[in-house]
Amino acid sequence: MGQVWKLGLYRILRPIFNFFDQNTFLRSFAKNYIYSKELYTDFFALSVFLALQNFAALGVALYWQVKYEYLPWWLIFAYYCQWVGLGGRGMGGAYTLSHKEGHHRGGGLYKNWIASTFGNVWENWMGYLYGIVPYNFSTSHVFLHHKLNGGKGDAMYQWDLDRSSWSDLMLFQYRVMVYMTGWSSMETFRTLADSNTVMAKNYQMLLKGMILYWVVCPSVSLSLLVGVAGCSIISSLKFMFYIWFEPMCGMAFFLALINFAFHAFIELDESGRHVACVNSTVIFDGDDDYWGEDDHMAHHYYTNVSHRDLPEHQQTQHQEWKKWTASCFKKLSIVELAIFILLKEWKRLATYHFVDFSGKLSVDEIAHLLEVRAKRKEMDYETYEFDYLPNLKANAVDLVKDGTCRNVGEALKHLAHTSTPLIEGQVTQKIYKKQN
């Protein structure tokens, strides 16, 4: 789907989309009746097109199911193709819209009439079609992934894995799948609920979302298919598998892949703290950027910078990027970056895509640096899963008791952002001086 788009179809379809996206009447309507700020009108055209596309596809699938009591393979294939979208713009758009809403809890993107009635439209309603458990972004993504910046304790932590390993990707795929169900985050919130009121509230919200996703909606859907439409139980269960559960698996694999690239590299400063501009990537001139999502550094560490203000913000970061030889790339997508890392195409990345702000490193030095940082770990998988995580709360409480941190929330961030000497993986480490 991505190659069909990139090899030329975008030349036909993008101007059509731009016509609606830049239409002053539609923008004015969205500003006056839909969104709480003019900035958010940038999301309107994609939201409308994607919603119409999904309703049409789901309608066809439901019609076929009710009339014939089965879904033929060609229809399932067509449904998944529209679900992914040309250039990944279906799946990527739905994820991004849900993601944006999750950062504005309770429908903050929208006018009050939408916020008070529907809340987050994509995260909590349309997201069902993409395997998104309601409130997962508003809780887990914001209060674990962002609070800990991908560090230890995050439901999608990955620095105990080799990000250039296909087998380690499968371990991460499992971790992300459990995150997608809501279970891993809910367990973390439950464990911390008695020591943190925010975590207790997140636990209740996510539990509600899980009940809606895993109990209420499947029960209602099956009741309608069997009791109202007269479909058999077996055919209805198959329909739910293909339309309800399989998309969650697809979205989990997509998230595992792109997050391997978003946080592919790791470096520490002299005090053992994570280096932000290495541990999160940024892509310039990417083909598939959604409102600044390609700048994952700013997304994590400068969350108040809007996508319209990113170019100006990035100018202020050049010295920091030069000092640490930051994880900066150009002219590729986040999916392509992930695939090149997994294929160990270090030379290709160094030659054509890496942006060296110091201007002092050779292609071979850059390639070696990327390989070292991608294979480097904070600890091994078994230690993290079976030692660190079970003792996370106890370690946080100890930091509060000895006065290192003021509360458990602060202790969790301290633990997540600080590390002992890193494990270098299978790469022979060369002496490397940071560029000043």
Automatic annotation (TrEMBL):
<keyword id="KW-1133">Transmembrane helix</keyword>
<keyword id="KW-0472">Membrane</keyword>
<feature type="transmembrane region" description="Helical">
    <location>
        <begin position="43"/>
        <end position="64"/>
    </location>
</feature>
<protein>
    <recommendedName>
        <fullName>Fatty acid desaturase domain-containing protein</fullName>
    </recommendedName>
</protein>
<keyword id="KW-0812">Transmembrane</keyword>
<feature type="transmembrane region" description="Helical">
    <location>
        <begin position="211"/>
        <end position="235"/>
    </location>
</feature>
<feature type="transmembrane region" description="Helical">
    <location>
        <begin position="241"/>
        <end position="266"/>
    </location>
</feature>
<feature type="transmembrane region" description="Helical">
    <location>
        <begin position="70"/>
        <end position="88"/>
    </location>
</feature>
